[in-house]
Specification:
Length: about 525
């Protein structure tokens, strides 16, 4: 990769390797040495965006979840989205009832091993798959029962398509949570979905705001503001606090990109957005891709032979080990659970339909951009929707995109297989163990007392210095403009009505004769002295 190569070059190279045409739904994510996630910006140099040393470790994943994944034109695109949602299910980002969980897992089973065969699939064969953070024997029996009796004859492509149709009806479809806190200090997860902005708190969805109701997003330091204009001219401002300023900026940029992608009609409507009302302060960002409507119109024009899909080796799923990828991890005992390693299936098994829950989305979302067709969800946005009996706490979502080294991963797998949950420090180390991060850790270990700023502190100092310089530059510019205006008023012969009215005011006459004329004579005297000195020398 050349030093001046843009992110778009790398992304196009990767999509060409995957034979992928419907590529606008995907992106490349990486983790910096401070364990902060970032999306690779396609208009900037790859090397300049990476704060680590090569080789760089990045992750290809879904960035914008399709409004209707079953309507994607090509099977290769549906397969890649299927892999992403399967990963979301495993990490607890996609939450569902027990019956839905069993059906989704059965679709995965059918797609990976085909029809049930008593000779090949002994009793308990479904337990060799890891579909969720934690399994129960009852759920495994239900998965095997559906796989045996209901899905026989389905091809991998059909099973994946049915999986996508079912997944899109779930409340947490397309959720990539950002951990935050509200004004009361309570933990919450903020997310941007194809249909709007979502806030998940405890076991409830406390806010759902459609994209056409979001009027503005901005951030200051760790504080994120969302301005909402609802029906009857009701305006509210939601305020949340991110763990770090970098996390808050990442949240803001994700919101700007998602709103532009799902809300706008054309990419020509995209505008540069500032995080502050003052043009010399804050961050400026512009979404550089196509919008959802343009992507769907472009997909409809694709005419080629369907590319061959190598399901066993195209994108191996480390996070979802199957029969071909390795044995299922043992569940963590209830008495030894930690906050990081959640047992989400207990909440799935005891989940009941609530009278206050949001209506399930229909299988078709062709009217998602029209608005009136989704009146049921709009009416429910004012209510609190219960999504689970247990708190929504996706362990992997609060951590960086996994870039684990092989040895670290084996160590963590062996610990989990023995029933010992990993600490958050260990998981972060395994999922963000980039060479730069390891080198930085070794350097800090060798020089514990060494002074100096870390990358995050240095970046904050640089931002502060740039902000001060911008303010100073604007101030000097304004003073220069005022000086030019003053010279025009006092020295020029322009006799326009505007200048004449100003010159005739008593205040200007007093300023002109008492201050400006003496100052002009002083400057003229000094200038003559300097000229005479130069002539003499």
């Amino acid at each position: 990769l050349q030093r001046d190569a843009k992110g778009q070059y790398l992304f196009d190279l990767l999509c060409h390797h995957l034979n992928l045409l419907e590529k606008d739904y995907f992106g490349i994510r990486f983790v910096d040495p401070d364990k902060q996630r970032h999306w690779l910006e396609f208009t900037k140099s790859v090397v300049k965006q990476m704060r680590a040393q090569p080789p760089f470790t990045m992750c290809f994943r879904v960035k914008f979840y399709p409004t209707d994944p079953a309507a994607l034109k090509e099977e290769i695109t549906r397969y890649l989205v299927f892999l992403q949602i399967k990963r979301d299910l495993y990490h607890g980002r996609l939450l569902c009832k027990t019956s839905d969980a069993a059906l989704l897992a059965a679709y995965i089973l059918q797609a990976e091993i085909g029809d049930y065969d008593p000779g090949k699939h002994p009793e308990g064969y479904s337990s060799k798959f890891q579909f969720f953070p934690k399994h129960s024997e009852k759920l495994e029996r239900k998965i095997a029962e559906i796989h045996k009796s209901e899905l026989s004859g389905q091809t991998p492509a059909t099973s994946e398509l049915n999986f996508l149709r079912k997944a899109q009806t779930l409340e947490t479809y397309g959720v990539d949570p950002h951990p935050c806190k509200d004004v009361s200090g309570n933990a919450a997860f903020l997310a941007f979905t194809p249909f709007g902005f979502v806030v998940l708190q405890g076991n409830k969805r406390v806010h759902f705001i459609k994209w056409n109701e979001v009027t503005k997003m901005k951030f200051e330091g760790k504080t994120f503001y969302l301005y909402v204009s609802q029906k009857e001219e009701k305006k509210i401002v939601l305020t949340y606090f991110a763990p770090t300023p970098e996390a808050c900026k990442h949240l803001w940029k994700c919101g700007i990109e998602n709103q532009a992608f799902y809300k706008l009609e054309k990419s020509s409507q995209v505008r540069t957005v500032s995080s502050s009302n003052l043009f010399f302060k804050g961050s400026r960002f512009r979404y550089s891709g196509r919008v959802a409507k343009e992507v769907m119109e472009s997909s409809a024009k694709i005419k080629r032979e369907p590319p061959e899909i190598h399901r066993a080796g195209l994108v191996p799923s480390r996070s979802c080990p199957s029969i071909t990828h390795g044995p299922r991890l043992s569940s963590v005992p209830r008495t030894r659970r930690r906050a990081v390693h959640i047992s989400i299936m207990e909440g799935l098994e005891s989940l009941r339909d609530s009278a206050h829950s949001t209506p399930v989305r229909s299988a078709s979302h062709g009217d998602a951009f029209a608005g009136p067709g989704r009146s049921g969800r709009a009416e429910s946005s004012d209510r609190v929707a219960v999504i689970a009996d247990e708190s929504y706490s996706p362990a992997d979502s609060v951590l960086p995109t996994p870039v684990a080294e092989h040895s670290l991963e084996l160590m963590l797998l062996s610990r989990q297989a023995n029933g010992a949950p990993c600490s958050i420090e260990e998981e972060k180390e395994s999922e963000a163990g980039t060479p730069a991060a390891e080198a930085e850790g070794e350097l800090r270990a060798l020089c514990p007392g060494a002074g100096g700023l870390g990358p995050a502190q240095a970046q904050q100092v640089n931002k502060f210095v740039l902000s001060v310089l911008r303010l100073l530059l604007v101030t000097v510019g304004l003073l220069f403009v005022l000086l030019l205006l003053l010279i025009v008023l006092t020295e020029s012969d322009l006799d326009t009505a505007f200048f004449r009215d100003i010159r005739q005011t008593p205040e200007f006459e007093q300023f002109h004769y008492q201050y400006f004329c003496p100052l002009r004579r002083w400057f003229a005297c000094k200038l003559r002295a300097v000229v005479n000195l130069l002539i003499d020398t």
